[in-house]
Write a sequence for this structure.
């Protein structure tokens, strides 16, 4: 039933105005108080994806946090589900102190789940919320193999759903994530680590300890502001089964990020954009490992080719001109190096990245085909 407030002409208009002004004055203060606890907490993650976990086998996730505000005491850390248990510090947490909250989820149903946990403090009126989510399956190893269509990668007795991470289109200010599923095929628990992580990225494995036959998730988070340049940035990180594990090429995970400049166009500029044309969708190298591609501009303003990069070693690339007037063309020439191409592994498909100021073709990736 709808409720309606009627203001009677015989009532006190002055009282109504006082009440209205009081409400308007109080409401901003309420809004500010809601975020005070959150502002004092520096959390590595507020949400942890636990990936595929086994039905009726408890799985853990650890939230790592730091107190940026005044000292407080956690009166309670309250899960909103009886299948979720928590462990948290039972002492005062000083300013600048690091602390952790461990969440154990014991699945009672198959399928996707999302569970919230409220941190309640003696110093703040409103809780700080954490979330765990994932997917409950009967056999995570079998399901992971089925979902990956046979593309899973074995590193010792650890299985990864894939061994590469690609942040395809990022811009200044972006924070984006990619995930890889990790399965413990060993007969003993593992404490996997991702090592050699660059400063522009973080990598978190949840749960910290993966039991035999169970599964977790590696979450990679990219901070685009910290990428060293526009265009292509590549690096390798490595999976260690435990702290201090020996690193080798077989444990490599290739990480690729492409950062694009933001194109801000006025109305008049949108009506006079450059238009990139290509003589082919890719490049095929001949027996001498040489190939050409014609680039053109059929637009109404100059086309600027700001970046040309190879994803792999073994390709020498030359371009006659990087700025094309309307109607002008240029030739992109590629020469392969036999030794380097022969040494490429399955993760390294020869490709060429081109970045232009054509808003409809700002980024192009050209595959390079060849026979040795």
């Amino acid at each position: 039933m709808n409720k309606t407030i009627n203001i009677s002409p015989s009532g006190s208009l002055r009282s109504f105005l006082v009440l209205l002004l009081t409400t308007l004055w109080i409401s901003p203060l309420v809004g500010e108080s809601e975020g005070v606890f959150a502002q004092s907490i520096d959390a590595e993650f507020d949400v942890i994806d636990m990936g595929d976990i086994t039905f009726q086998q408890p799985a853990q996730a650890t939230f790592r946090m730091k107190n940026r505000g005044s000292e407080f005491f956690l009166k309670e850390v309250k899960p909103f589900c009886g299948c979720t248990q928590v462990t948290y510090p039972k002492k005062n947490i000083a300013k600048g102190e690091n602390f952790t909250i461990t969440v154990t989820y014991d699945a009672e149903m198959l399928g996707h789940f999302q569970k919230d946990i409220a941190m309640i403090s003696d110093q703040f009126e409103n809780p700080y919320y954490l979330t765990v989510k994932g997917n409950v399956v009967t056999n995570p190893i079998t399901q992971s193999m089925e979902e990956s269509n046979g593309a899973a990668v074995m590193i010792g007795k650890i299985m990864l759903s894939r061994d590469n991470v690609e942040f395809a289109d990022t811009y200044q200010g972006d924070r984006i994530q990619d995930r890889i599923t990790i399965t413990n095929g060993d007969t003993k628990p593992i404490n996997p680590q991702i090592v050699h992580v660059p400063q522009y990225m973080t990598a978190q494995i949840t749960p910290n300890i993966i039991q035999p036959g169970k599964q977790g998730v590696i979450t990679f988070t990219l901070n685009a502001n910290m990428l060293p340049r526009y265009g292509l940035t590549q690096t390798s990180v490595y999976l260690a089964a435990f702290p201090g594990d020996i690193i080798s090429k077989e444990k490599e995970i290739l990480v690729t990020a492409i950062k694009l400049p933001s194109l801000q166009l006025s109305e008049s500029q949108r009506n006079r954009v450059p238009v990139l044309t290509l003589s082919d969708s890719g490049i095929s190298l001949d027996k001498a490992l040489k190939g050409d591609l014609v680039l053109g501009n059929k637009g109404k303003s100059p086309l600027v080719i700001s970046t040309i990069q190879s994803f792999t070693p073994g390709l020498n690339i030359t371009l006659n001109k990087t700025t094309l007037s309307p109607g002008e063309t240029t030739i992109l020439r590629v020469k392969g190096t036999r030794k380097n191409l022969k040494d490429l592994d399955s993760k390294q498909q020869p490709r060429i990245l081109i970045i232009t100021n054509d808003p409809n073709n700002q980024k192009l990736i050209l595959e390079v085909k060849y026979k040795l």
About this structure: Confidence is low (pLDDT under 50) at residues 1-34, 140-150.
